[in-house]
Amino acid sequence: MGSCLAKSTSDGDDSEHNVEFAGGNVQLITTKESWEQKLAEAKRDGKIVVANFSAAWCGPCKMIAPFYVELSEKHPSLMFLTVDVDELTEFSTTWDIKATPTFFFLKDGEQVDKLVGANKPELQKKMIAILDSENPCET
User: Fold this and answer.
1) Cα dist. 54→30, 85, 103, 129, 132 in Å?
2) Which pTM does this prediction carry?
3) Residue 34, CB half-sphere, CA atoms under 13 Å: how many?
4) How far apart are CA 100 and CA 134, in angstroms?
């Protein structure tokens, strides 16, 4: 599905570029410290983190953002984070982001799954698998 590989040039006005990437229960990460704080919070609360590494200029990122917000509202037992790869370039590099959007699923700060590209059905499928592994049906 869609993903962005190259960075376009910006006009320098980044003041409103993250508006569509947050909302619902999605929390925008703007510093490495806030990332570490949210991961610690998730670990403490026993929540799995879904981290969306995206970019404001990326068409597929913009396309999937409302769906990501919708998922965050449907699944409050998970923590949804968005990281702008341009705002946190060095940090994003440590996660080996080759294309945006890239979604990581983290449990206790460790990666348990990953999805590259704006593939709604696959994102939904991975979310359900993660939720099912956490809450097996009782018979």
Assistant:
1) 12, 6, 9, 23, 26
2) 0.83
3) 11
4) 27
Please give the positions annotated as active site: 58, 61
Q: Which residues in the chain come in under a pLDDT of 70?
A: 1-22, 135-139
Q: What is the DSSP string of 46-98?
A: TPPEEEEEE-TT-HHHHHHHHHHHHHHHH-TTSEEEEEETTTTHHHHHHTT--
Asked whether the beta carbons of 55 and 7 are under 8 A apart, the reply is yes
Q: How many CA atoms lie less than 13 Å away from 44 in the CB half-sphere?
A: 6
State residue 136's pLDDT score.
Answer: 61
pLDDT digits (tens, 9 = 90+) for 79-113: 999 999 999 999 999 999 999 999 999 999 999 99
Select from 107, 99, 73 the least CA-distant residue to 1: 99
End-to-end CA distance of the chain: 37
